[in-house]
Design brief:
about 350 residues; 11 helices
Length: about 350
């Protein structure tokens, strides 16, 4: 029996769009039917490369055409809100890149609009795809480590100290991430959202309070390169208390020399502990539970070779074959914590409660 045909529109044709198109094109029954970008040359190059026929330079033009079922939004953070709402109003399914929006007010409006539209809505929190992370979340939920008491987590990158991904001081795809005027919330909004989701998903609890300090380092004369004022934060440190009473720390940095793109989480309960790692694309999980606690012996935990990626889960949700997770409501909850983290830093690290 053939899979239900899904006609997909790509919004934004920058660097991440290529990964989206390649992933969706590999799913049976999914057809990339159109692309949107204000930059006509970039749009033409991208669509020619991927064999995409219809090309639009505005959301309104694409909606007037209307011959698509779902949208993958790969625009810069600052325009997620304005580019997503019209599609929700038109009752199109939407997958949006993270963070969902740059403020909780906008993110919550997006979540409300998606609910009212009754469409599938998901956020691309990439590291939900990790088999070690998902196995750890299931172990915590099953009580394998007892009541969670403490955790520490980090997301470390080094692209400001080495050119592993390209020259950050010459290429637009990196420079905009360092400038608040270009819509960046710094490392906090870019990768802090990932490690926040990572840790709290595994812990199985929402954030009750946050204390945060952010740091921006000088990176160029006058901390400016051409039109880019380099004022977005480069490193962040958060202390969290969760609704289940657990406490922990999260930190993220672009100055973590030697760590190209590494995530780690250690989580401890009253009956054991887990260590989750995602380094150089390799996922690992270790546990210390049961009789091993006495001697502090840690053992490797068998994990699946892979988990379904968000692209597969998005299409499955549209076809009614699986849940939409993580959804816009999750994205809005995460953004609430990030907004409070910024407020906490501005108040020199004051502890700020997360209101329901």
């Amino acid at each position: 029996m053939s899979a239900q045909r899904i006609r997909l529109l790509v919004v934004g044709t920058g660097g991440m769009a290529r990964a989206h198109v390649e992933a969706f094109s590999a799913i049976d029954g999914v057809q990339i039917v159109a692309g949107i970008d204000r930059d006509a040359n970039r749009l033409a190059t991208f669509c020619d490369e991927h064999g995409i026929e219809k090309r639009f330079q505005s959301v309104d033009e694409a909606l007037e055409w209307g011959e698509f079922d779902a949208v993958t939004n790969v625009t810069p953070d600052a325009v997620h809100f304005v580019t997503t709402l019209p599609f929700l109003e038109a009752k199109k399914h939407v997958l949006c890149e993270k963070p969902l929006a740059v403020t909780h007010a906008d993110a919550s409006r997006m979540a409300e609009a998606a609910t009212n539209a009754g469409v599938v809505n998901m956020v691309n929190l990439t590291y939900r795809n990790g088999p070690a992370m998902q196995t750890a979340a299931k172990m915590v939920a099953s009580g394998d480590i007892g009541e969670v008491r403490h955790f520490d987590a980090s997301y470390l990158q080094s692209w400001l100290t080495q050119d592993a991904w390209g020259k950050w001081d010459e290429e637009e795809q990196w420079l905009w991430r360092l400038s608040s005027a270009h819509g960046s919330k710094g490392v906090l909004g870019d990768v802090g959202v990932h490690i926040l989701d990572y840790a709290t998903h595994v812990a199985g609890s929402a954030v009750a309070s946050v204390s945060c300090r952010l740091k921006t380092f000088d990176k160029a004369p006058g901390n400016r390169i051409d039109d880019y004022v380099l004022d977005a934060n480069d490193s962040c440190m958060m202390h969290l208390e969760l609704a289940n009473g657990a406490t922990g720390v999260l930190h993220a940095s672009r100055f973590a020399s030697g760590h190209i793109n590494d995530l780690s989480l250690s989580i401890y309960g009253d009956k054991g502990g887990l260590e989750v790692r995602a380094t150089h694309g390799v996922n690992t999980l270790r546990a210390c539970t049961g009789e091993d606690l006495l001697e502090g012996v840690w053992r490797d935990v068998e994990i699946p070779e892979s988990e379904p990626w968000v692209f597969e889960r998005f299409i499955s949700a549209i076809r009614g074959e699986g849940p939409m997770d993580p959804d816009f409501a999750r994205g809005a909850d995460l953004q609430k914590v990030l907004d409070l983290a910024v407020e906490s830093d501005e108040a020199k690290g004051i502890i700020t409660a997360v209101q329901a």
